[in-house]
Amino acid sequence: MPYLAHWTYDVAPLYNSYKSLTTLSVFFDKKATDIPIFLCKFATLNEKTTIFTTMRVLIVNTSERTGGAAIAANRLKDALNNSGVKTMMLVTDKETDDITVAALPHKWLLQWHFLWERWCIFLHLHFKRRHLFEIDIANSGSDITGTKEFQEADVIHLNWINQGMLSLKSIQKILQSGKPVVWTMHDMWPATGICHLTLGCRNFEQGCANCQYLPGGGGRNDVAAKVWRRKKKLLDKYSVAFVACSQWLANEARASALLRGQRVESIPNAIDTRVFHPQHKSDCRNHLHLPADKKLILFVSQRVTNVNKGMDYLIRACKKLVTEQPTLASDTAIVVMGGHAEEIADKFDLPVYPLGYINNPQLASQAYSACDVFVLPSLSENLPNTIMEAMACGLPCVGFNVGGIPEEIDHLQNGYVAHYQDSDDLERGIEWVLTSPDYALLSQNAVSKVTAHYSQQSVASQYIKLYNKVLDDSKRRI
Predict the structure, then answer these.
(1) What is the pLDDT of residues 261-283, one digit of tens each?
(2) Fold of 281-453
(3) Of the chain's two ends, which shows fewer C-beta atoms within 10 Å, N or C?
């Protein structure tokens, strides 16, 4: 079990004498501190008693459950708690009655922060909606340093904190508190001026300006340049431990001029293999009303019409499958899990079974187990939770060679990594999986990969080591 700190006494008190107490007063860094007795562990050696206290971590994320970052942050919270770290999650949008998740107060103020930032971005976009939710300027947000959850935490762990949750001023107050800060990057926003996806732009290596998301390509002193300078000033003054969920994103982060001199590590997202695991295919199909006699191709996205998720490439790949492999195609259908699934059903030459957006992990696990191959032709990705979930359920995966996808899919071992934006190669990958004589081995390899690299225990242990490092660094700076 991880421990934040310890105090050693010259005379060993009997543990029984503390059983009637609720707190224990100790001195640490020349300050008297009241420690709840239930957080203390006593170890006596050579007539000295050492008192340990458990580490407390606060995970900060805009949403509790909506979106890939929220899912990843929530899973990390559970993994840490299961590993003995007292972990809370602070959000603006609390969606469950989970007692380890706290919501920021004053919902009207949270809504104001969100709307004010969107309005300012709308102005910079010359009153056009295009890119309205693809950039963030962090000019409005909540001060979380006064919350009970913040004050009790030993480590502040930022995640996806955009769309009005935290402003740059909010982040500055967090850093000024002196508490060590870990920041998990779910996209490139912490390392750029205003964008989450760089789409081939390398300006962040020197300094953001002339932003492709702004009308006319922005300018030398556009809003991206201004936000960049504010971020640079902040990060030049304070230390933050950045974590990328993939090696690809870690390399991109290290290339950013914003993060020079900062710690950047790579730790993957965690998954609960007690929820996502192989289940009986026929039972799952029956429960979800899916055909029992077809090979099923699964596509998953929060919003399936999101251009970045590459639906058009899957449509073209399936058309090629119908043309070149008509026998296989006659026994194949598409399953779509995500919002707006019904809008794309008529674009396929294969039967389509829309499941809609599934927010229930157990039901999502059944959907993965019901299918034969998972396809994610995204144009830009970090380390997709969906591929991890599919593999945990024994589903071989096919995706483009981009971002962290090839770190998850071992080519021809548990799936197929297709050439980037190549729908013909995407079709070859789908066909290869569906007709593989070693399908059972592919499935077994997928499960083994997740167990070895993405289990709760594996990921939590890596974060605990990092927390201890930043705590030690913080103490040395005092």
Answers:
(1) 999 999 999 999 999 999 999 99
(2) Rossmann fold (3.40.50)
(3) C
